[in-house]
Amino acid sequence: MHGDPMMWVAGVRALYLQALHPLAVRAVMQNSDFRRDAWGRLMRTANFVGTTTYGTTEAAERAGARVRRIHAMLSATDPATGRAYAIDAPDLLLWVHCAEIDSYLHVLRRSGYPLTDVQADRYLAEHRASARLVGLDPAEVPTNRAEMAAYFTEVRPRLAAGADARAVDDFLLRPPTHPLLVPARELLWRRVAQLAYASLPPYAHELYGRPAPAPAAVTRRLRATGAVLRGIPARLRWQLPPKHILRAMARLGPGARPAPYKVGR
Fold this sequence. Notes:
Blueprint: H1 7-18, H2 22-31, H3 38-54, H4 57-72, E1 75-77, E2 84-86, H5 90-110, H6 117-126, H7 128-133, H8 145-155, H9 163-173, H10 182-198, H11 202-208, H12 215-230, H13 234-237, H14 244-252
């Protein structure tokens, strides 16, 4: 699944969703330089996901330890109360994890990736490993679609689109770029961001206050985009950094090549 090109749209959807938790997004705003180093932050996230997906066990454990070490040193201040809090609090880590994994699963399935309900539950259960790596207790992490839906229902009253969330929204639609690249940003990136936003759940559209196309139209756009991107030869797509898939295939042999038809095995 993580070798599918629609993961890029799913990743942007995750950012939109994560920004709706006031304390989670405040932690990012106070401890991140994403506005000045958007590409660097994106690549660091992609590198972590790639390492935990395609790297060795040792590499994944090192990556997780590094994330936990950095998070343990950071804190943020609640804008509503002025209270300082640790950014590695379990409830915040759980929100970031669930918003991310739910987005991956939602976008890929909705865009036509062949995954049954049983396989979708297996995907969520397998991500208890990545949850543990960032410091969560796997027993507290949703392991199937029903548990994930119940989690979002429980956390929904705590979500809001405050100033920080709107700053993320504005950034995702218009990330800083070189003047010569502005046309490409408007033509390509803006479409990715708009599609990612459109794929959010209705309550997220309500919170952001910006309407989205009808769900059926969004599904058609996701499927069309998926068909186009999946038409690009995988070997060409995998040349993009950080090249985890190619390194894994070099280590494990050509039989390790990711392919949708292997999902049912």
